[in-house]
Design a protein that fits this description.
about 200 residues, alpha+beta, 7 strands, globular
Length: about 200
């Protein structure tokens, strides 16, 4: 695994979510693109979230911002400016450009709690998301591996015969959220300080 592999974080810090699962394809609610059925389940789906007075475009937007705490970097990522100084509308790609040098040192120990936090905010504020989760009851929720030439990463699963197989962490968390109405998480005391940086520079 690479230095910045998400899988190694899950294995080390969240063993309860580590491992490969298999789901009968005919019993699954599968998503990948935000424009297809069940697309609202994607963290990238447009679902405005307001946290402490700051508006985030999506669950993914909030999650990616949580990776940083240095003022200059927080503001550059927030404004969609990559480390190379180019404008980028994709929050994931913008954040990725800074990760090798500026990502929080404790990110690996909080990554699942961070996505849980973002998912819960989306659940609380997006009625369509809640309704679609309820509509999926009785089905397994599976995030499809976007690149068919790669193994399923920590977040997703891949179709193998008549089963979706993979870690499917996103799907597992969505099912947990659906079945319990919330997700339990624990974040560092400074986890949301980046929001104050943004508010002071709006």
């Amino acid at each position: 695994m690479s230095k910045h592999s998400v899988a190694q974080f899950i294995q080390t810090n969240y063993p309860e979510y580590w491992g490969i699962s298999s789901y009968p394809a005919e019993e699954c609610a599968v998503f990948c693109s935000t424009h297809e059925q069940w697309g609202i389940f994607s963290n990238m789906a447009a679902s405005p979230i307001v946290v402490e007075g700051v508006l985030f475009k999506s669950c993914e937007h909030l999650f990616q911002m949580m990776k940083f705490k240095e003022q200059d970097i927080v503001l550059r990522v927030w404004r969609g400016i990559t480390s190379a100084g180019k404008s980028c509308a994709n929050i994931k790609m913008t954040a990725k450009s800074y990760e090798p040098t500026y990502r929080r040192e404790d990110w690996g120990a909080m990554i699942v709690d961070a996505i849980k936090f973002a998912m819960v905010q989306k659940y609380n504020e997006c009625e369509h998301f809640r309704n679609e989760l309820n509509r999926s009851r009785g089905k397994y929720i599976v995030e499809k591996q976007a690149n068919p030439n790669k193994h399923a990463d920590a977040w997703s699963a891949k179709l193998e015969g008549e089963h979706w197989v993979g870690p499917n962490l996103t799907g597992r968390l969505l099912m947990e959220l659906r079945d319990n109405g919330t997700l339990r998480y624990s974040l560092p005391a400074d986890a949301l300080e980046f929001i104050d940086i943004i508010k002071q520079n709006l």
